[in-house]
Amino acid sequence: xxxxxxxxxxxxxxxxxxxxxxxxxxxxxxxxxxxxxxxxxxxxxxxxxxxxxxxxxxxxxxxxxxxxxxxxxxxxxxxxxxxxxxxxxxxxxxxxxxxxxxxxxxxxxxxxxxxxxxxxxxxxxxxxxxxxxxxxxxxxxxxxxxxxxxxxxxxxxxxxxxxxxxxxxxxxxxxxxxxxxxxxxxxxxxxxxxxxxxxxxxxxxxxxxxxxxxxxxxxxxxxxxxxxxxxxxxxxxxxxxxxxxxxxxxxxxxxxxxxxxxxxxxxxxxxxxxxxxxxxxxxxxxxxxx
Length: 290
Known about the structure:
The chain is α/β, with parallel strands linked by helices. The protein is built from 10 helices and 7 strands. It has helices spanning 16-27, 39-52, 69-82, 107-135, 156-176, 194-202, 204-207, 209-221, 226-237, 263-268; strands at residues 7-11, 31-36, 59-63, 88-91, 138-143, 181-187, 248-250.
């Protein structure tokens, strides 16, 4: 088992991708604390995961709004008392936020999306980092997605927050190298979860005809398997990926199962990072001086 004797916190762990990640972690031997805001689905996930756990594994559920520091602090203290030493944090909780023209959507909704997707990643990271520094190692896995690498018209809060999560990931990775704390982001692929349902419900008028058409096709085709992103999280939480840090990795498109064999290249280049593209990068020579 790849995660035997490891303890992990998984946010947004009651349904969708978070639920799949928790399932894979338990199957690979980890003890987990999963959190979410919706108590009913959270307790159901806890019950199902406990049934799948082996002797000695622990499964704990904690209702928590990850954008509220006091609630996150209470969650980590519960993990300290019931799991013991923390080894892995998976920041999966997230929302699409408002859909529509940026200047027209509700400001409170736009702000809430930033709070949950960005602050709700940063706040758990802060609590995990202090614990990882004490133990001299740790793994942080942040959920990003297509919104980080491409413009998403009419879903601007989500796009902005997910791009920010990737740059936060890169920054924390540099800050924490000397403590052997690996920090990575993943793009799990286009998933058929409640977020897709939101896009279909919003309709082409709010999300745009092109994005709506892609979402409709995805709903019919089935989308990326949840297990693919969950398996990537297991890889990044395991010893096999030690030293891989500061990267945005696609579960669907990147050869992540063998990334550890390319560790030297990863550590010496900007592969799998967000960077500014210059004219020279695209074979252009613009020599005008400012």
